[in-house]
Amino acid sequence: MPHTPRKVTPRKVTSRKVTSRKATALLASAVTVCLVAAGAPAEPLGIGDRLFPHLGNPGYDVASYDLSFTYPGSNSKPLQAVTTIDAWTTTTLDRVNLDFAHGTVDSVEFDGEPAAFATTGEDLVVTPADPLPRGSWMRITVRHTSDPTPARGRDGGWVRTADGLAMANQADAAHLVFPGNDHPSDKAMFTIKVTAPNGYTAVANGLPTDVDRSRAVTTWTYRTQHPMATELTQVSIGRSTVLRRTGPHALPVRDVIPTAHRKQLEPWLEKTPDQISWMESKVGRYPFETYGVLMADVNTGFELETQTLSLFEKGLFTDRAFPAWYVESIMVHELAHQWFGNSVSPGTWSDLWLNEGHATWYEALYAEEKADRPLAARMKAAYGASDRWRTAGGPPAAPKAPDPGRKISIFRPNVYDGAALVLYALRQEIGRPAFDRLERAWVTHHQDGVATTDDFVALASEISGRDLNGFLHPWLYGEKTPPMPGHPDWKPVAPAKAAPAQ
């Protein structure tokens, strides 16, 4: 994510037999809607994430999302949208909570029949006609609006660009755009359909499966071939050009840029295939079906690793204050996230260091190898600041909660260079060969899945042949930074004192 100047096993499910007849379902549903207030009141739920306790919902796993957006030709007006969720229950449910805010719900269907619903907090609570036993397969269809104007007191969701829209849903903002189970621990397949007036181009995660053109509008359909967390969803709508090229092993690479700035921006994009090859030389084959860069004409203050289509500010590439080596290393940072954070997603948001620490690590390693910017020098500087970062933001694997009204404030230096420092210490401790094997094993063992800090420590111990809990625990959870192996001279650096007022 925000970088400022990460194997699903198919499960057999039991279909829920619908016993009510369709002839009486509409009446029954209408009665249920009227009586919903008479039962226990709907309440917002969550899976108890330490940093976002009300994010996500218990009791079900989502298998797939089908998202449909109709863009009105203005990025200040709501989009009409339909979200269809296929999921299975993991416990008995009489209600299904979805994360959703910042839109109007017009109707909800459950297994094809109208269903009662209520909104509470940032949850949409759906009440099916009958309770759902564990193992039930369910389909929920929500017709709603999706508001691109900023939500009061919230970060993320739709981002309004100079010529349309893009998405920035990390960490907890996908449900400002569409209903879902908005936590990275519940990954799913996505189909995304976008209808926009002719003259606009829409691009989304995954590969295109259909383009339907009419006299006034065009509809694009995209589909992922790997599961994805909701926070990694991307939809670009704008007056854009899509540039296509081929990456390693015939990987389709497609980039999206404002048409008016094509000549200025395309030279940067030509670097992507070689950057993919470089990352593959470090950790193995690129994990998805396509990759590309979305250069948006917007000022966000960050870049974002949305799956298969990373979001960048156009200004990163046009501001001459940024040296070329720096821009290229940031491109590699977001690319590295496709392995670390996207293919291998964090089990909780406290595991964020696994995403950002690794992306920062490969950003810095690329700068060392390609631009003679020594990794050790960067890590020594990080060591000097690490105690201050831990005090301000918590240790890397136990970050402090976000500031009120600024959920993205969990993205502090402690989970970037502070977390990369943990990886450097680990490499110093176990040696480069074992560290390199660990990195490849991590993204292979957990490809398309979810993993935690405990999983990383366990795999590191397995690869190195010794228990690393005692070594890594202070680095991950300590209030103070432990001594750096091999560098006894590295010391914390006190913050510079402000000059006295004159």
TrEMBL record:
SUPFAM superfamilies in UniProt: Leukotriene A4 hydrolase N-terminal domain (SSF63737), Metalloproteases ('zincins'), catalytic domain (SSF55486)
Domain Aminopeptidase N-like N-terminal: from-to ranges: 170-230
Sorted UniProt keywords: Hydrolase, Metal-binding, Metalloprotease, Protease, Signal, Zinc
EC number of the protein: 3.4.11.2
Cofactor: Zn(2+)
Reaction catalyzed: Release of an N-terminal amino acid, Xaa-|-Yaa- from a peptide, amide or arylamide. Xaa is preferably Ala, but may be most amino acids including Pro (slow action). When a terminal hydrophobic residue is followed by a prolyl residue, the two may be released as an intact Xaa-Pro dipeptide
Protein name from the UniProt record: Aminopeptidase N
